Amino acid sequence: xxxxxSVVAVLFYLLVPAGVVWLCRHSAFAGKAGAILILYFLGLIxxxxxxxPFEGAAGRLYPLQDALTSVTxxxxxxxxxxxxxxxxxxxxKAFVALLIGLFSVMTIAVAGYFLLREHxxxxxxxxxxxxxxxxxxxxxxxAAIKMMLGVDESTYVLMNSFDMLVSFLFLVFLMSVGIRxxxxxxxxxxxxxxxxxxxxxxxxxxxxETEMYRGIFTRQHFLPTLKAFGLSVLITGIGLGxxxxxxxxxxxxxxxxxxxxxxxxxxxxxxxxKWEKSYDAGMYLVLIFSLVVASMVDIRSIDLKEGLWLxxxxxxxxxxxxxxxxxxxxxxxxxxxxxxITSVAMINSPLFVPMIAESMKNRRVILTGITIxxxxxxxxxxxxxxxxxxxx
Length: 392
Hints:
This protein has a domain at 90-189 and 215-278 and 299-391. Helices cover 79% and strands 0% of the residues. It has 17 helices and no strands. It has helices at residues 2-26, 28-33, 35-48, 54-82, 91-120, 124-136, 139-149, 153-185, 201-211, 219-247, 252-267, 270-273, 278-294, 308-331, 336-347, 353-360, 366-391. Helix 6 (124-136) runs antiparallel to helix 7 and helix 14 (308-331) runs antiparallel to helix 15 (336-347). The longest helix is centred in the middle third of the chain and has 33 residues, at 153-185.
């Protein structure tokens, strides 16, 4: 039974994205919604409507799901970065976006603390510190700060569960209406696909999406794509090796920094520039990742009554920091896509950057998002501990 369930799950995760891509290509409504958003809902349904029921199956499927999420994005990042043009990366804009992002998370965390501390109990200052750590870096920062501050296990587990739920809703909001909304509020930088014809932005982007994945198995593209995948495996292996060598374990900062650096260097090689479908291959791995992540959200296991005010604090931290980033982005003339990708890199981690960049149809922001996310990992623990000590 365990083997059969695993085989069904693997086939589900590998083949359903292909079906969704076909649907988006042949349905105007599905194409407008986007493959990633559809896969998110399919994963959520699969997990919570008894297709892959959590009761009894969670323990058997989690190792498989964890393995897929751990493998897909490290392999996808190099494939995606191979296809990006980094010669005109806007460093100044990325730096401004980073400062705005850090300031926004810190400000909202402090405001939320003073508004809700009576409801959060004696661990309120520690919770504020963990909020800053997880929403400038990621879950590794949350776990590290929890250990350093001695937060009890029940609070950590509850916070982690609420974080998964609200972060999921945050991504759904961005992909459904948020990106379009913020492009109306903030300056909208023209994407690389449409630089030569601004009035035809929508048409060119739609054409690019429908052409994605076409011909990837033809003689012209199949062998180059295999080469790209092989180089991605090599770079990922080097990243894992360096991480183990320098930290004794899988350190996300070391891993992502190595992947990014080596992949950007490779993208300047003439031979790599000819691998036209490397981006498509990387994005298919991102589609698999999206489906798997969504299928790991167990809505029924979350006890809203037990930690209602903690849930409120997390929701305020995520959506409040995004709102402040948008307001400051308008003040400092940071474009919509940079603002959104900065928020995603901090709230969800750099692993989700390619997903949202694809939803925006803007590859140019990928490096900005990944870089900001790496810096967030690095400073998150310091900022979280500092805030907890100041408030405590």
